[in-house]
Design brief:
Length: about 375
């Protein structure tokens, strides 16, 4: 564990805002990370773990407590109990896109549509990252994590992380409550061994993005290359020279609404059905079973509607700015709030509030921020 001179979080976050913390520690190995966390937790001070800073919106006041930079690296190949599959256990500070590139080069499928997402592997389960219909909930098997309440390290199955649409029990942001305070040390993925040949591409959303018909095929490398191109054209791949990428990715989540509300929106509003949770298993004790099985309740599945469309239809086009603010919508993507250079957190928050209010006034829907908010409120 190495304590370093605190760096302003504006220099370590992709939205380029945030004051300096009181203390900053770098952890290069798993042992250093565990040691740093146990040390900080024993002091009772505020703390924040920082990966790539690509899903954080931080206020500009000094940050109380200690920021721990997770800089651990390493990918380990393990056998899978399932035939034709392989597991990769990856240290938390490892770059996400580096992992995807590695999996693709090894002919392992399951992550390729998430090429180009910035950040670290340890932060990926925090909001169940996803793109083009692929989410890590489908391939994440388990994580090693250290729990703040006990200081103990344990292996936790992915099913216990409450992974949902851009959320988990580890995520804490404005409007939600952290359910578990813990830090991921490593994550293990179970991937299909498909090799380098072209094969059918699963998922309508991915096929549509790639311009493939239902029977269309592609290699993992082709999928990765195409996704990186598409993301690049939308400013969704970090580029130090392009202010359209100085963002936290999508600032607002697509809105998940009951089907009846979705029906009240104009038909051209893009929407996707949200897969319903499986019905809980009905157990009727034999002693009380009278031969009658009640009809299960059926409910229309919720619908996910495009937040980018809602924003644009509320009159806020790509590139929109509240002059003279230095915050603005990306000129390539209406969902990315960007720092056009030197914007304060207050300027970004002002733009976010304005967008929320306009969408609410137009459609009655309150957009929820996707990044984790630290030292700032909307
Ligand atoms: C240009 C751009 C495009 C993006 N595109 C997408 C996309 O397509 N899909 C998508 O889902 N996201 C996307 N994002 C959001 C972001 O990249 C992901 O959420 C990413 O997983 C964040 O990783 P990070 O290491 O940068 O996390 P950070 O921003 O450093 O941290 C985010 C949160 O995770 C916590 N955290 C960090 N490391 C750990 C750990 N080891 N254990 C526990 N908690 C931890 C932090 O304390 C914080 O609360 C995009 C962001 C940008 C800037």
């Amino acid at each position: 564990m190495a304590e370093i001179t605190p760096i302003r979080l504006a220099e370590l976050t992709t939205l380029r805002t945030g004051g300096a913390p009181e203390r900053m520690v770098e952890a290069h190995t798993r042992d250093e990370l565990v040691e740093a966390l146990r040390f900080v937790w024993a002091t009772g001070d505020e703390w924040l773990v920082l990966g790539g800073g690509s899903n954080l919106f931080v206020g500009d006041d000094p940050v109380e407590g200690t920021v721990i930079r997770v800089l651990t690296r390493g990918i380990e190949r393990l056998p899978s109990p399932h035939e034709g599959r392989t597991r990769l256990r990856v240290q938390a500070g490892h770059g996400w896109d580096d992992l995807v590139a590695h999996a693709v080069s090894e002919g392992l499928a399951g992550l390729e549509a998430m090429s180009g997402i910035p950040g670290t592997v340890g932060a990926a389960p925090v909001q169940n990252i996803g793109a083009y219909g692929q989410e890590i909930v489908r391939t994440l098997v388990e994580v090693d994590l250290i729990d703040e309440s006990t200081g103990e390290v344990s292996t936790v199955p992915a099913a216990d992380l409450g992974l949902g649409f851009r959320t988990s029990v580890l995520k804490a942001h404005y409007g939600s409550v952290p359910e578990r305070s813990a830090v991921i040390l490593s994550a293990t993925f179970d991937l299909a061994e498909v090799g380098t040949d072209a094969r059918p591409v699963a998922g309508v959303q991915l096929r549509t993005a790639l311009g493939l018909a239902e029977e269309g095929t592609a290699t993992l490398a082709e999928i990765r290359e195409r996704i990186l191109e598409i993301r690049g054209s939308k400013g969704m791949v970090l580029d130090a020279d392009d202010p359209d990428t100085w963002s936290a990715g999508s600032f607002f989540q697509n809105a998940v609404v009951p089907a009846a509300i979705a029906r009240s929106l104009p038909p051209e509003c893009p929407r996707w059905p949200v897969e319903p949770d499986l019905d809980p298993v009905l157990v009727i004790p034999l002693a009380v079973f009278d031969g009658h099985v009640p009809t299960p309740e059926t409910r229309e599945p919720d619908v996910k509607v495009s937040a980018a469309w809602l924003i644009e239809q509320a009159g806020l086009r790509k590139g929109f700015r509240l002059t003279p603010s230095r915050a603005g919508l990306s000129t390539k993507h209406a969902l990315a709030l960007t720092n056009r250079g030197g914007a304060t957190a207050a300027e970004i928050a002002q733009l976010a509030r304005f967008i929320r209010a306009r969408v609410h006034a137009e459609f009655g829907l309150l957009l929820q921020p996707e990044p984790v908010l630290v030292n700032i409120e909307l």
